Structure formats: C-alpha cells, structure tokens
C-alpha cells in the first residue's frame, strides 16, 4: 500500500530554536531549524519531549535557556530577556484535547480569536472542515472528531503565522482518525499556513509531514526532509518498521480513461502507473511506496502483472537486528532513491550485491490515493 | 401585617448596609481569590490567614480593630479624615465596612474554589488565540466561575445582613443610621414588654433571608441558561 499526496512549494522563512528545559528529572535539549512552510512533523515516543517543545514554541512554557525565532521575529531570547507572551505570538495551537470553551457556542468558539470580522474567511474555514451544521451547538454536545475539527477551525481563524498541532488524532477510533486526517491533509493543501505536527504514530506522521524531526529522550535524533529520513536504515524501526516506505515525487503526465490509471513521470526516463487520481496534468504529486511492496528481478520480465518496472542500481543494503530474515535495500532509480526489502534467502539466491543493475517491480494496485 | 416606620427603617438600613458591604468587597474579593487560586507567591499563607481571621475571631475584636485602624484617631482613619474629610465610625458606611470585613472570607472562599475549578488549559488555549490576561479573565475564567461567584455573593450578603458584633462595636447602634435588623432586635429584647415587636422583627429577618436564598437560586439558574445561549 502506498499513499499519494500533493506537495508544497519550497521553503521561504524558517523557525529556528535552541532551547534547554528541565522538567523534574527530564531534560529537553534541542536545536532545530525548520522550514516555516508545509508540514513539519515532530515525531517520537511519549516522554521524548515533543509536547514540551511545542509548548515552548507557543510560549506556554519558558525554557531555562534558549532562543526561538520565527522568520524575522525573535520570540524568545533568554540572554537578552526577550519573551513574547503567547497572546502576542500569533501561533495557533490545536491541543490533544480540543479545549473548546464550554460556555460558548461552536460559533462563538470559532470567532473567539478572530482579529476582525471576516465572514468570507469564516465561511471558507467552516466549509473546509465540514462544521457548518455544528455552528449553533454547544461544545458539550459534540463528538470527539467534531470537537477536534472545531478546535482546528478556531485556531485557523485566529490567523496564525504558524499552526501547532499536538497529536490531534489522540483518542479517536480508526474511522474518525482517518476522517480527521483527511480534513487535515486537505487543510495543508488549501490553507497557506506552516504547520508543526506532533505525533508518536509513524504512519500518521509520514503520511502528512514534508519535513520530519525525530525526538528521543529530550533530544533531536534527526531532522531532515521526510523522504531523506525514510531512506535511513538506522531509523527504520522508529519510522514504520514493517511499514517502512519511500516517498517519490512526480508530475502527472497522462490519464488512461479506459482503465482509469494515472501516469506519473518521476524524471525523463522513469514513470509510474498508479490507480486513477483526479489531479490535473502537470500537477506535482507525492507517492508513498512501502519497501515490502517492491520485488526485484535480475532482468526486465514480460508476461507479468507488475505494471511498474523500473531499472535500478543497488546502492547499499543492511540486515537489521530486529529482522534477521530480511535484507533492507536502497535502490537508485535515476535521481531517486527507493527502499526495498527482500528475504535474505532471495538476496543470496539471486546473488545480489551493491552496484548491481536490477529491475524494481511495483504493482500499480499497491498505490492508494488519499 | 403592616410595618411600623421603625421597622421599615431597620429593613432599609439592613438592605442598604448589606448591599454596600457586598459592593465594596466584591471586586476586592474577586482579585484576592484570583491571586490565591492562580499564583504562588511569598506570604500567600499569611494573606490567606489574614483573610480568614474574621471567621474565627470574636466579631467584637474585629470591630475593635476597625476602631483602632479607622477611628478618627486611628492610623488610617486619621489620614481619611484629614485628607478626604471622611469619618467612618458611627455612620452607615462604617457599618458597611464592618459587615463587609466579616463577610469577606465567605466570599473569597466560595470564589477561590470556583476559580480553581476552572481548567487552566482553557485559559492557555484562549491566550494562544490572542487573548491577553484581562480578556482571558473576563471571557473565560470569570464566566466559568459565575456559579461560585453567585453563591459567594449571596453568602456574603446574608452574612452582612446578620452582622452584629463588629457593627455595634465600630459603628454603634444609632437609630436611622446604623440600627440594622439585628441591632433593632437586640434593642427590643433589652427593653421589657417588647416581646411582640421582637417576634415581628424575627419574622421579617427570616423572610428577608429566605427571599435572598430564593433569589440567588433563580439568578444562578438564569445565568446558566444565559451562558448556554450566549454566542460570543
């Protein structure tokens, strides 16, 4: 299974921080430089300091030492005694619990942070989140998913220059999670606000983030573009394990109406055929391919149902201690890198080694559009 | 039953002094309760203790202390008289000060409990939406604490109505100025042959107390409804 999502334009302003915080026995010591555009995921197990980091960015907590800047603005500089309080940071937060104000209607909650009356924007956000019918209800009467959507709308309507989301899917059942994740994905495409998204769920965060920060025990273990981190063998266990995947980017070049398939060009020499996606020709798309969905062949083959055959070079490989029966492989396809996973037995029987030319086989039906 | 002019006078004074007492302690009480509920500071326990003193001290002591502080020769009283020309002892304003001091701990207790019950996470959420401290307090904290505010206010009002010891010590028992219901009742009991009149005042006191309880219940219910209808 693989996901297809749209992709954001390149970075302009940045969020940089360097903070030291002590909370009881827990120490947070983090230095980060994030593109303030698209979705930056902060990922790590609970207790790794993700939420603390978010609270520091929002100004809800003050670190012992540190600096935080967003674009040109200094939000915090302990040495110079600068601390911009949360209400003047224009940083929206969607908390784990929705934190709606129980004494206001949904409409009042949404309007709470609006700087000026903007009926047009209000209507757009309400429509985007599908909460038209909830406006006259009290927060106490909403379901978990509805309350989260209202909380997201409330934060968006305060016109933040940055939106922080702290595990917004926590406590929802799977169906509600997927529904809310679709709304959030839609939002990242239609609303031009950079998002910092905190989660401990690898699948959730790799499906939404452009840039990823991996936290561990109060420290930043890795911070890079998501596709680059997904290629790292040493992060396999954290970032999906069994569901380890690669991200590929391409341009929609053709639609096959007869069989309802979409052709995506990765570069001049390489194409992928995916299930039909309603995206305009020329549009950039992000495709997620699971390592275990890729098969290798020594020669191009015919008479097969594999619709995608890409010539590839084996860049490197490793065997992870957690999974001694498989070989993790990185393939170079044109300018792209793709992860694959074979049983160790196949690897040996095929006589594969680094530098060899192979054909990567990917079934079109393993892609799923979201 | 028709009320005599003296009885009317006592009722009028009681309500006036009760309301005035609540009026001056309410803003102060809200501020102090907020301070105690939301902040840690040096001397917090001492402040808490001072506020609660009137609950445990004999009211006469409170009245005496007020005389010492606010009497014309008193530390603050002297200044009040020389700069503002205000003298509190033996006036209805003085009675309102005395009964307010006695009612203050009840108000602060009720308010503090209900302010503490307001989730600070909601206040944090409001601040991330651009609300400054004052707006957070007036739109989130205080509205959510209104049930406690009402309870505290009614309790304080009832306490101020029934205040006797501190009032008679500080403001004396002057007909038409500081002779509230309890003081009028006390005066009647002191004079032989006034049992019937005393009984009448007793009934009036009970009626006023009941009416204020019912009014507070009604107010609380209405506020809850208004809070729910409000659309911000």
TrEMBL record, chain A:
InterPro entries: AAA+_ATPase, ABC_transporter-like_ATP-bd, ABC_transporter-like_CS, Mo/tungstate-bd_C_term_dom, ModC_ABC_ATP-bd, Molybdenum_import_ModC, Mop_domain, P-loop_NTPase. One of its GO terms (molecular function) is molybdate ion transmembrane transporter activity. Pfam families: ABC_tran, TOBE. GO terms for cellular component: membrane. Residues 14-242 form the ABC transporter domain. It is an enzyme of class 3 (hydrolase). The keyword Ligase does not apply. SMART domains: AAA. Keywords: ATP-binding, Cell inner membrane, Cell membrane, Hydrolase, Membrane, Molybdenum, Nucleotide-binding, Translocase, Transport. Residues 303-370 form the Mop domain. Its EC number is 3.6.3.29. Coiled coil: none annotated. It comes from the Bacteria. This is Molybdenum ABC transporter ATP-binding protein. It comes from Vreelandella nanhaiensis. The gene is modC.
TrEMBL record, chain B:
PROSITE patterns: ABC_TM1. Pfam families: BPD_transp_1. It is a multi-pass membrane protein. The keyword Cell inner membrane applies. It is found in: Cell inner membrane; Cell membrane. The chain crosses the membrane at residues 15-37, 49-70, 90-111, 136-158, 197-220. One of its GO terms (cellular component) is plasma membrane. SUPFAM superfamilies: MetI-like. Keywords: Cell inner membrane, Cell membrane, Membrane, Molybdenum, Transmembrane, Transmembrane helix, Transport. Residues 11-214 form the ABC transmembrane type-1 domain. The keyword Glycoprotein does not apply. One of its GO terms (molecular function) is molybdate ion transmembrane transporter activity. Its main location: membrane. Belongs to the binding-protein-dependent transport system permease family. CysTW subfamily. Part of the binding-protein-dependent transport system for molybdenum; probably responsible for the translocation of the substrate across the membrane. This is Molybdenum transport system permease. The lineage of its organism: Bacteria, Pseudomonadati, Pseudomonadota, Gammaproteobacteria, Oceanospirillales.
């Amino acid at each position: 299974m693989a996901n297809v999502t749209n992709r954001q334009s390149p970075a302009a302003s940045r969020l940089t921080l360097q903070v030291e915080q002590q909370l009881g026995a827990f120490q947070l010591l983090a230095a980060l430089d994030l593109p303030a555009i698209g979705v930056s995921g902060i990922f790590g197990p609970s207790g790794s300091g993700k939420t603390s980091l978010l609270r520091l960015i929002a100004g809800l907590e003050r670190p012992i030492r540190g600096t935080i800047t967003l674009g040109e603005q200094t939000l915090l500089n302990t040495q110079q005694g600068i601390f911009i309080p949360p209400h003047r940071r224009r940083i929206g937060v969607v908390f784990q619990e929705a934190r709606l104000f129980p004494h206001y209607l949904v409409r009042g909650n949404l309007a709470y942070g609006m700087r000026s009356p903007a009926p047009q924007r209000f209507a757009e956000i309400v429509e985007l989140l599908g909460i038209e019918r909830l406006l006259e209800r009290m927060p106490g009467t909403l379901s978990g998913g509805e309350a989260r959507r209202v909380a997201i709308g409330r934060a968006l309507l305060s016109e933040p220059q940055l939106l922080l989301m702290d595990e917004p899917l926590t406590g929802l059942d799977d169906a509600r999670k997927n529904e809310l994740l679709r709304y959030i994905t839609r939002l990242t495409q239609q609303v031009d606000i950079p998002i910092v998204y905190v989660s401990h769920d690898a699948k959730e965060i790799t499906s939404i983030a452009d840039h990823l920060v991996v936290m561990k025990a109060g420290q930043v273990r890795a911070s890079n573009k998501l596709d680059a981190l997904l290629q790292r063998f040493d992060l396999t266990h954290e970032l999906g394990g069994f569901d380890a995947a690669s991200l590929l980017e391409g341009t929609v070049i053709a639609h096959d109406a007869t069989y309802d398939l979409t052709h995506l060009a990765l570069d001049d020499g390489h194409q992928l055929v995916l299930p039909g996606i309603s995206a305009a020709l020329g549009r950039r798309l992000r495709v997620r391919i699971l390592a275990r969905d890729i098969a290798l062949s020594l020669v191009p083959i015919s008479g097969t149902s594999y619709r995608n055959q890409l010539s590839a070079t084996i860049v490197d490989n490793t065997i992870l201690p957690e999974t001694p029966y498989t070989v993790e492989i990185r393939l170079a396809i044109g300018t792209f890198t793709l992860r694959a996973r074979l049983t160790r037995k196949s690897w040996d029987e095929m006589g594969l080694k680094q530098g060899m030319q192979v054909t990567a086989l990917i079934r079109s039906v393993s892609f799923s559009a979201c | 039953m028709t009320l005599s002019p003296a009885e009317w006078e006592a009722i009028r004074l009681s309500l006036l002094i009760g309301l005035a007492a609540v009026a001056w302690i309410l803003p102060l009480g809200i501020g102090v309760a907020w301070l105690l509920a939301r902040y840690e500071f040096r001397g917090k326990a001492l402040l808490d203790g001072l506020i609660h003193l009137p609950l445990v001290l004999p009211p006469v002591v409170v009245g005496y202390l007020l005389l010492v502080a606010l009497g014309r020769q008193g530390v603050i009283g002297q200044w009040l008289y020389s700069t503002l020309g205000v003298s509190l002892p033996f006036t209805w304003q003085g009675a309102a000060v005395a009964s307010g001091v006695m009612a203050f701990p009840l108000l602060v207790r009720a308010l503090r409990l209900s302010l503490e019950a307001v989730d600070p996470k909601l206040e944090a959420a409001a601040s991330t939406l651009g609300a400054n401290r004052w707006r957070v307090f007036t739109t989130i904290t205080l509205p959510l604490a209104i049930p406690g505010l009402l309870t505290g206010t009614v309790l304080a009002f009832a306490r101020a109505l029934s205040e006797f010891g501190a009032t008679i010590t500080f403001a004396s028992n002057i007909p038409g100025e500081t002779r509230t219901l309890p003081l009028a009742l006390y005066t009647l009991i002191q004079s032989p042959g006034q049992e019937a009149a005393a009984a009448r005042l007793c009934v009036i006191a009970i009626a006023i107390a009941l009416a204020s309880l019912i009014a507070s219940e009604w107010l609380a219910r209405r506020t809850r409804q208004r809070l729910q209808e409000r659309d911000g």
